[in-house]
Write a structure and sequence with these properties.
Layout (H helix, E strand, L loop, with lengths): L1 E5 L4 H6 L9 H4 L6 E5 L2 H5 L14 E5 L7 H14 L1 E7 H5 L10 E4 L20 E5 H8 L2 H11 L3 E6 L35 E4 L8 H33 L5
Parallel strand pairs: 1-2, 1-8, 2-3, 3-4, 4-5, 5-6, 6-7, 7-8
Length: about 250
């Protein structure tokens, strides 16, 4: 499992403290027990090379970029190629409705297409994503708010599970946010009474996309531990399954 933090999680911090660049969050997230970082950027920051300032600052983090809505051009695609090369970016995440309007998306840019939320009319159902040849990012929050019941959400996952490379982890229900004067669209799972679906493939990148209340880094740390505990449970289940198979076959586990 790869556990990543989206720099978009600090959205409210950025406006409260007048932070100019997501680069300022690196000194915070580098101290966390995580494996990756998802840069949440704007079209302007890509075109003016602001994102390239992350070069040599990501260390060995698994790097991904969440793309904004952008005007298609050769210049923009060349900027993405530069970012991929210089920052060693694995994937560029893009919402399905935004990707669908592109006329000539290059094959040599590793897009992951994300299922949309309830504000969009198309690509909320993951079966609609199968028209694309690219791999996918499955946003659990988007599926939860639309399909609501665990069985329906699982169907959404199963429709594309063989092509999922990344999960966006957050929830739409969280009692911890009741004490704050603002409410966020993506909220941290811890404190919500929610659980990560047991069927998710833990070999993928799990990106924490829950917005963090101002100065509540402790909640993010709990979220990281929550996801890592999920991975540990899954690992123990796999070990037990191997033991049971070995006992049935009377063969030692090597």
């Amino acid at each position: 499992m790869i556990v990543s933090v989206s720099l978009g999680d600090f959205y409210y911090w950025r406006h409260k403290f007048n932070i100019k660049s997501e680069l300022e969050y690196l000194k915070i997230v580098k101290k966390l027990n995580i494996d990756g970082i998802e840069i949440h950027t704007t079209e302007k920051e890509i075109l003016n090379n602001e994102v390239l300032r992350f070069k040599h600052k990501l260390n060995n983090f698994f790097a991904t970029v969440h793309l904004p809505v952008f005007k298609e051009s050769n210049e923009f695609y060349n900027k993405l190629r530069d970012i991929k090369k210089e920052l060693k970016v694995h994937y560029f995440i893009i919402h399905a409705n935004d990707f669908n309007r592109l006329k000539y998306p290059p094959n040599n840019i590793p897009f992951l297409i994300e299922n949309t939320d309830k504000r969009k009319k198309k690509f909320r159902n993951t079966k609609e994503l199968l028209k694309f040849k690219q791999d996918f990012c499955f946003d659990i929050d988007h599926s939860e708010e639309i399909f609501k019941t665990p069985n329906l959400i699982k169907r959404q996952y199963n429709a594309i599970k063989d092509r999922i490379k990344e999960f966006h982890i957050s929830t739409i229900h969280n009692s911890d946010y009741n004490k704050y004067k603002f409410h966020t669209y993506h909220k941290l799972i811890t404190g919500s009474g929610k659980f990560i679906p047991k069927y998710l493939n833990t070999t993928n990148n799990f990106v924490i996309e829950g917005v963090i209340p101002i100065n509540r880094l402790d909640l993010l740390k709990k979220e990281i531990q929550f996801i890592k505990s999920f991975n540990k449970i899954k690992s123990n289940q796999r070990i037990k399954s191997r033991l049971l198979r070995s006992e049935r076959n009377n063969k030692p586990i090597c």
